[in-house]
Prior knowledge:
The chain starts with a helix and ends in a 13-residue tail after the last strand. It contains 3 helices and 4 strands; from the N terminus they run αβαβαββ. Strand 3 and strand 4 form a beta hairpin.
Amino acid sequence: MLTGKQKRFLRSKAHHLNPIFQVGKGGVNDNMSKQIEDALEARELLKISILQNCEEEKDDVVERLVAQTGAELVQVIGNTIVLYKESKENKELVLPS
Protein backbone atom coordinates (compact mmCIF):
# COMPACT_ATOMS: atom_id res chain seq x y z
CA MET A 1 0.00 0.00 0.00
CA LEU A 2 1.11 3.53 -0.77
CA THR A 3 1.57 6.04 2.05
CA GLY A 4 0.08 9.54 1.91
CA LYS A 5 3.52 10.97 1.18
CA GLN A 6 4.04 8.56 -1.72
CA LYS A 7 0.60 9.35 -3.13
CA ARG A 8 1.34 13.08 -3.00
CA PHE A 9 4.63 12.47 -4.81
CA LEU A 10 2.89 10.37 -7.49
CA ARG A 11 0.10 12.94 -7.90
CA SER A 12 2.70 15.63 -8.56
CA LYS A 13 4.38 13.38 -11.15
CA ALA A 14 1.04 12.52 -12.80
CA HIS A 15 -0.13 16.13 -12.99
CA HIS A 16 1.42 16.81 -16.41
CA LEU A 17 0.47 13.44 -17.93
CA ASN A 18 -2.30 13.07 -20.48
CA PRO A 19 -4.71 10.13 -20.26
CA ILE A 20 -3.57 7.38 -22.64
CA PHE A 21 -6.58 5.11 -22.20
CA GLN A 22 -10.29 5.83 -22.33
CA VAL A 23 -13.00 3.67 -20.84
CA GLY A 24 -16.05 4.07 -23.04
CA LYS A 25 -19.34 2.39 -23.74
CA GLY A 26 -17.94 -1.15 -23.54
CA GLY A 27 -16.55 -0.60 -20.05
CA VAL A 28 -13.50 -2.50 -18.85
CA ASN A 29 -12.66 -5.71 -20.68
CA ASP A 30 -9.79 -8.20 -20.43
CA ASN A 31 -8.06 -6.83 -23.52
CA MET A 32 -8.06 -3.29 -22.12
CA SER A 33 -6.77 -4.53 -18.75
CA LYS A 34 -3.91 -6.33 -20.48
CA GLN A 35 -2.98 -3.21 -22.48
CA ILE A 36 -3.08 -1.07 -19.33
CA GLU A 37 -0.92 -3.61 -17.51
CA ASP A 38 1.64 -3.48 -20.35
CA ALA A 39 1.59 0.34 -20.30
CA LEU A 40 2.09 0.34 -16.52
CA GLU A 41 5.12 -1.93 -16.93
CA ALA A 42 6.56 0.56 -19.44
CA ARG A 43 5.63 3.80 -17.66
CA GLU A 44 4.75 2.94 -14.02
CA LEU A 45 2.33 5.87 -13.75
CA LEU A 46 -0.58 6.62 -16.04
CA LYS A 47 -3.90 8.36 -16.37
CA ILE A 48 -7.09 6.79 -17.67
CA SER A 49 -10.18 8.80 -18.50
CA ILE A 50 -13.73 7.52 -18.19
CA LEU A 51 -15.91 8.79 -21.01
CA GLN A 52 -19.43 10.04 -20.40
CA ASN A 53 -20.92 7.21 -22.45
CA CYS A 54 -19.41 4.58 -20.12
CA GLU A 55 -22.27 2.46 -18.81
CA GLU A 56 -20.41 1.21 -15.72
CA GLU A 57 -20.27 3.15 -12.46
CA LYS A 58 -17.00 5.02 -11.98
CA ASP A 59 -16.25 3.16 -8.72
CA ASP A 60 -16.77 -0.19 -10.46
CA VAL A 61 -14.40 0.81 -13.27
CA VAL A 62 -11.74 1.80 -10.72
CA GLU A 63 -12.18 -1.43 -8.73
CA ARG A 64 -11.95 -3.64 -11.82
CA LEU A 65 -8.88 -1.86 -13.19
CA VAL A 66 -7.06 -2.10 -9.86
CA ALA A 67 -8.04 -5.77 -9.42
CA GLN A 68 -7.19 -6.83 -12.97
CA THR A 69 -3.90 -4.94 -13.34
CA GLY A 70 -2.57 -5.27 -9.80
CA ALA A 71 -1.92 -1.53 -9.77
CA GLU A 72 -2.24 0.93 -6.90
CA LEU A 73 -4.89 3.62 -7.12
CA VAL A 74 -3.22 7.00 -6.68
CA GLN A 75 -6.30 9.16 -7.14
CA VAL A 76 -9.56 9.75 -8.95
CA ILE A 77 -10.36 13.31 -10.05
CA GLY A 78 -13.63 13.76 -11.88
CA ASN A 79 -13.54 11.14 -14.61
CA THR A 80 -9.77 10.66 -14.56
CA ILE A 81 -8.06 7.78 -12.76
CA VAL A 82 -4.35 7.78 -11.87
CA LEU A 83 -2.76 4.34 -11.45
CA TYR A 84 0.74 3.35 -10.33
CA LYS A 85 2.49 0.01 -10.54
CA GLU A 86 6.18 -0.48 -9.90
CA SER A 87 7.88 -1.68 -13.07
CA LYS A 88 9.93 -4.87 -12.96
CA GLU A 89 12.29 -3.87 -15.77
CA ASN A 90 11.80 -0.13 -16.40
CA LYS A 91 11.95 1.23 -12.86
CA GLU A 92 12.18 5.01 -13.06
CA LEU A 93 10.22 6.45 -10.16
CA VAL A 94 11.81 6.36 -6.74
CA LEU A 95 9.12 6.74 -4.10
CA PRO A 96 9.85 8.69 -0.92
CA SER A 97 9.82 6.49 2.17
